[in-house]
Structures are given as C-alpha cells and as structure tokens.
Amino acid sequence: MKKEEIFEYVQKQYGTIPEYLWSKLPDSAVFRHKNGKWYAVIMTVEKSKLGLEGREMVDIIDVKCDPDMTNMIIQTYGFLPGYHMNKQHWITILLDGSVSEAKVLDFLDMSYDLIDGAGRKENK
Q1: One Pfam family this chain carries (predicted)?
Q2: How many Å apart are CA 20 and CA 96, to the nearest integer?
Q3: Going edge to edge, which strands form the sheet with 29-32?
Q4: Cα(91)–Cα(76) distance, rounded to whole angstroms?
Q5: Could you tell me if 95 and 104 are in contact, meaning their C-beta atoms sit under 8 angstroms apart?
Q6: Is 95 within 8 Å of 58 (Cβ atoms)?
Q7: What average pLDDT values come out for the chain (124 residues) when binned by 10 residues?
Q8: What is the DSSP letter of 19?
Q9: Residue 55 confidence (pLDDT)
Q10: pTM for this one?
C-alpha cells in the first residue's frame, strides 16, 4: 500500500490530513485523532534501522495496537515493534507490499479506535 493511498483513506474515513512536523524529515507525517492524539505516523527509514537486511529505504507506518496483541503480531513478516514508539503499545507495518492493503487499513482503524479512549489511565 502506498502512502498516498493511506492519505486518501484517512481523509475520507476520519477527515484527517498528514501533518509534517519535522523539517529534517520531510517525508514523515503524523495523523491526529480529533482529540489531538496521534493515531499513526508514516516515515521513510533505512531497513537496517528496523533490524532488517539492507540499506535501502522503506516506507513504514506506526499504529497503536492492543498490547495483548503486539507480541503475537510482530511475529508475522511485515510487522515490527513500533519504530521510535512505545514497543508495547505501537507496531510498525512495512508498506512494501508484504502486508495486504486490507490488513494495513484494519490496523489503522484499530489504532484510531484505541486513541479514542486514550488518556484514561487505569489505576493499578
């Protein structure tokens, strides 16, 4: 799935547009929930920074994930621990064709829904 397709999807689905917050990373964008919290980050990074073989660049998307699912999901090719994010609550999805469009969108939707309830901390 291409970044542009994701941009189009979130615009239609949630009315959000990419925000480019870092001048040194002009290809990196965040998507904010209507409550102001991030629900996805799209970046272009070198494969080796993800623990993968090679120095070529790859597009990725970070999405929030149910912590009970994270360890299981990252066992599947195309899914990695969240790059530059909390590894318990975020996953990285490769946008190189290894993960189907339907799955990418499912995880994007799940992330949006999880952010909807964010901010309520459980007392332990």
Answers
A1: YjbR
A2: 21
A3: 29-32, 38-46, 57-64, 90-94, 79-81
A4: 11
A5: yes
A6: yes
A7: 93 94 87 94 94 94 94 93 92 96 96 77 38
A8: B
A9: 94
A10: 0.89
Output the six-digit token pair for 43: 């970046």
| DSSP tag of 46 | E
**Residue 102 one-letter amino acid:** A
pLDDT score, position 31: 96
DSSP 124: -
Angle, helix 3-14 to helix 101-116, in steps of 10 degrees: 40
CA 108 – CA 94 distance, rounded (Å): 13
DSSP output for 20-34 = ---TT-TT-EEEE-T
Neighbours of 108 (CB within 10 A): 23
Dist CA 11 CA 7 (whole Å): 6
Report angle CA 78, 73, 13 to the nearest 5 degrees: 75
CA atoms of 59 and 62, how far apart (whole Å): 10
* Separation between Cα atoms, residue 12 and residue 53, nearest integer Å: 35
In this prediction, residue 123 carries a pLDDT of: 35
Q: Taking CA 43 as the corner, what is the angle to CA 88 and CA 114, rounded to the nearest 5 degrees? A: 40
